[in-house]
Amino acid sequence: HPACPACDTEARAYHPGDVAEVLLKEHGQSRAIVLFPVDVKAGQDPASLVRDLVRRGFIRLRVRDEIVDVTVETASEIASLFKGCRELEVVLDRLVLRQDDRARLVDTLETAFREGGGRCVAEIIGAGRRRFSQAYSCQSCGRTFETPKPALFSFNHPLGACPACKGFGNILHYDEDLIAPDRTKSLAGGAIEPWTKPSADWWQKQMLLAFKRRGFDIAKPYNKLTQTERKLLWEGEGKLEGINDFFEYLEGKRYKLHVRVMLSRYRSPVSCDTCKGTRLRPEALAVRVGGRTIAEVADLTIAAAAEWARALPLSAFEREVAKDLLVMLTAKLGFLLRVGLGYLTLSRQTRTLSGGEAQRISLATQLGAQLTGTLYVLDEPTIGLHARDTATLAGILADLAKAGNTVLMVEHDRTMIESAHFVVEMGPAAGEKGGEVVCAARYPEFLAHPTALTARYLSGQETIPVPRRRRKGTGRGLVLVGAREHNLKNITVKIPLGTFTCVTGVSGSGKSTLVQETIYRALARAFRVENLSMGRFEAIGGIEHLDGVRLIDQEPIGRTPRSNPATYIKAFDDIRRFFAALPEARRSGLLPGDFSFNTVGGRCEACQGSGLQKMEMYFFEDIYATCDICEGRRFQPKILAVRHRNTSIHDVLNMTVAEAQSFFANSTTISVKLRLLASVGLGYLRLGQPATTLSGGEAQRLKIAGELVGLTGSRVVRGLLYILDEPTTGLHMDDIKKLLTVLNRLVDAGHTVLVVEHNLDVIKTADWVIDLGPEGGDLGGEVVALGPPEAIAVERASHTGRALQKYL
Question: Which CATH fold would you assign to the domain 372-458?
């Protein structure tokens, strides 16, 4: 029900049955008068109003707390009685509030609501008056509210969205931390970052001049400025324009793209003052069910929301109306609880969910459908899942199969494969050397198969070894103090530099919040890589021991098909030089630039080197067809005529990395880069494969290969922190073995590798482990254990430790 903001009392909409229930419960055995109100319009003739009421059978009225029989009053008496009256009440019935007379009471109330335009009044003799309305209205002041509609509670609908923030929950404001990122600098030394740009030079000069005229020290650090100096700097004075005026001036130039880009660098989101981040308008937040607004319910965890729905204090009428809704709500919450997501809040944004949490939400949706005779196809459902949750997931999938369904999944996880009834092994290798069925058998027969690579790992014939010794690092560390974003409980962690460190814990324990939202964003801001809003923390130390930070995530490496593995690791530059050095190219006067499909010269101009031509469909999605000039070869005939061992540059781009390694065996610069690609398990990719077609795992490994290429360059950077979030996603055990070799190469080269990971084969090889938990959501966010894997394995409170024991 809506709550009146003025009186802080519940506004309810009543039906005759509700009113009868309230009166009998609260005033049983009392004498009562049932009335309905009639509005008296300005200038209305009282006599005609009374005649109309009498004609309809209503002869007793209550006017100014006095009940009169209008049939015995004269016209002049009625006129005198009604003078200045805005409302009168018609008496319908007098009765004693007894359960035996409930039918009579309900009948009277129905008449009162009908005649009173949805309003009625009950006067309890000796206990005062009660007003009731079929529209939502305040019992104290009579203020009415609109009848709630579903759209009112949606921040995606204009009817429900907060008018101030348009339903986003936050508004962008100019952030002092971004405008003055280094507060140790003075105004003269460039403390105001946007004023260091040549286009803003005038603003800087006029402010420096104003400071000098007032005797202010322009060499004083920004963080030492007085309140008066700051006010002058930000707000200006008279004709002197400050920082606020500068941004106001730029707001008037927002129609220019470069101005919008510039402004975005200095703004960050803050919670909307109007809706306090709830994203809804006040009318939606005035409605309460079970004492809570929809925003308060959305902020509950799934477990708490399920308990709230179960214990709702509803009347018999309300429970009947909400019966089907409550059944659906409790069922859906129950499915989410079953897949282990009780710690998530209902308002949690999906983009902040871990991969495992998103997978399990999808699975809960399927469980809710309760289908039979259905084929479920799952692609790596254990992505992002902790070993504890994997066992739960295996049980859920087994239940789906028992219900008469068939479950087909692509999976690399040991527990899931062991729980399968039937296993199909594809291979024997990747890319061109794959695509065959190596084995298709029930699990016991599969495990005994002599050539199935997966079976060899599961049976112990192939292993990922535990390191003989753990690195101690450089003796220095990156220390984060007081991290408290989302569910982090004011924790302090130290990452030993020069080590391979794993951050572990069950899904929702705070791993990504700690590593990506807090550590990475703090370092990215310190090294001027990105200006993203950081997770909250007290302090961070040890940055001076690092030379930079790299986040190697699974985002695509390029937004257009022109980007490919060869161009990303700079191997294509060497390949172009290789072809330009061939005798035929030299005779034709061709240069390395002519062998590029991105520049004018040697590319096919009909398709501009893409090999495809776009056909605009206007009302439909555009269609891409093979270029009929170059037939998809991307280059002009004179470029394709240059061949090495009867192979053109187009043919090279169609080679896999493994094939190209053999082809360029005599070219050291090219073969070194290709070997690095193969070392991260990407030997099956084609050199010219569009980056837009790569999976997230492939893109991540390609980025790692790019970093390895950097280690072979002439300008090698030392002391970088590499951050990876679940790099084993989509990897076979054999590929994980290769990946670990690569990551250890980065550490051996003087860098630090920080990995968020669930894979126990990776965790067991780490030098240092930070285990968060003990559970997810509000029950997580604490450091459960710190140390090498052996120390984690003996920690009783650690779910990771228990799972790790059999791997060490």
Answer: Rossmann fold (3.40.50)
Give the model's confidence band at 536: pLDDT under 50 very low, under 70 low, under 90 confident, else very high.
very high
Tell me the per-residue pLDDT of 631-671, one tens digit each, with 9 for 90 and over. 999 999 999 999 999 999 999 999 999 999 999 999 989 99
Please give the pLDDT value at position 779: 87
Among 640, 636, 664, which residue's Cα sits nearest to residue 650? 640
Q: How far is CA 794 from the centre of its chain?
A: 35
Whether omega before 428 lies within 30 degrees of 0, making that bond cis, reads yes
- Is 335:368 a contact under the CB 8 Å cutoff? yes
Q: What are phi and psi of 549, to 5 degrees?
A: -135, 145
Q: What share of the chain is helix, strand, coil (3-state, %, to 5)?
A: 40, 20, 40
Is the distance from CB of 554 to CB of 700 less than 8 angstroms? yes
CATH number of 565-693: 1.20.1580.10
Give residue 353's pLDDT band: very low, low, confident or very high (50, 70, 90): confident
Which residue, 393, 457, 398, is CA-closest to 427? 457
Task: Please state, in angstroms and rounded to a whole number, the distance separating the CA atoms of residues 729 and 734.
Answer: 13
- Assigned CATH for 170-271: 1.10.8.280
At 25, the amino acid letter reads K
Q: What is the pLDDT of residue 716?
A: 58
State how far the Cα of 775 lies from the Cα of 567, in Å rounded to an integer: 43
Residue 629 makes CB contacts below 8 A (sequence gap 6+) with 604, 606, 607
Please give the CATH superfamily to which domain 477-547+728-807 belongs.
Answer: P-loop containing nucleotide triphosphate hydrolases (3.40.50.300)
Angle (deg, nearest 10), helices 696-711 and 733-748: 30
763: closest CA among 734, 732, 727?
727
Task: Indicate whether 302 pLDDT > 60.
Answer: yes
Query: Left, alpha or beta for 592 (phi > 0: left; psi -120 to 50: alpha)?
Result: alpha
Distances (CA, A) of 412 to 46, 420, 671: 86, 12, 30
* pLDDT number for residue 354: 67
* Contact (CB, 8 A) for 222 and 191: yes
3-state secondary structure of 218: coil
Span 699-725, average pLDDT: 82
pLDDT at 458: 95
Give the residue from 380, 431, 370, 371 showing the smallest Cα distance to 409: 380
The radius of gyration of the chain from alpha carbons, rounded to an integer in Å, stands at: 37
Domain 11-147: give its CATH code.
3.30.190.20
Residue with tokens 């989302």, as numbered in its chain: 486
Domain boundaries, the chain: 11-147, 170-271, 372-458, 477-547+728-807, 565-693
From residue 365, alpha-carbon distances to 19, 369, 386, 739 in Å are 40, 7, 21, 34
Name the band, by pLDDT with cuts 50, 70 and 90, for residue 297: very high
pLDDT in tens, 16-75: 998 999 999 999 999 999 999 988 887 777 778 888 888 888 889 887 778 888 887 766
Cβ(29)–Cβ(127) below 8 Å:
no
Alpha helices in 723-796 (DSSP H): 733-748, 760-763, 789-793
What token pair was written down for 39?
A: 């509005």
| Same topology between domain 372-458 and domain 477-547+728-807 | yes
pLDDT band of residue 370 (cuts 50, 70, 90) is confident
Report the distance separating Cα 49 and Cα 79, nearest Å.
Answer: 11
Tens digits of residue pLDDT in 449-460: 999 999 999 999
Q: The tokens 């920082």 sit on which residue?
A: 243
The least confident of 309-313, 405-409, 578-582, 716-720 is 716-720
**DSSP string for 693-723:** GS-HHHHHHHHHHHHHHHHTSSS---SEEEE
Reading across the β-sheet that carries 491-496, which strands appear in turn? 491-496, 477-483, 539-541
Minimal CA–CA distance to 34: which of 90, 77, 98? 90
Q: Pairing mode, if any, of strands 11-12 and 136-138?
A: antiparallel
